[in-house]
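May I ask for whichever protein you like with its backbone structure tokens?
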Amino acid sequence: MNNHRLIRIQAVSGLLFSLFALVHLSNTALAVLGPDLYNGFQSSARRVYQWPLLELALVTTLIVHITSGVLRMRGRRGSKAKPPLRLRLHRYAAYYLAIFVFGHMAATRLPALLADAPPFFGGVSFSLHFMPWFFYPYYALLGIAGLYHLCYGVPVALGVLGIRAPQAIRRGPGFWIPISAGATLIVLALLGFGGALYEIDDPFDNDFARAYEAAAAYFSEEAP
């Protein structure tokens, strides 16, 4: 497959998946305002994007996007050209997301599928209290990497398809201000999940936490 076709496949798959990424990031930002709003938005969104055929389409789109990106990366091997900073950051974000995204999906979807225990606000709060040294930086980098990849990638993908985004969005303050504001909201949302912004319920007293603890106990007993 030639590089031009790969570019178009990556652009289309990226644009399709960006719709879900935008919903996911918006849901995260709502944690700044409290558990009720976060959980209410997630409940409404889950009824749409977790419809089986749509969920399968989202996963397929993500796999296509990552695969086309890997093939393009292999095609760049040996090139000595140094891309501009914004493009390098876009690629670094992609590497981080590609490494962790499927583990993140499994950690959030399997409890819901196997134990009817979707994470909701309490599940995220549980993970931050259970392993704060890991999950605070992990979630912060996951959210900010997703935000940057989205803000940089969407205008580029539209350009590939012949739709030119406004100059103010592609460069200068119109590019950096939304990313800075979004990154700030992600950090504040994590503080909300952690109980630093307002009082929260016991993070170990919810269905997601109990499902995780039950699974951990089961595998501990099974281990030789």
Remarks:
- The chain has nine helices and no strands.
- The two ends are 48 Å apart (CA to CA).
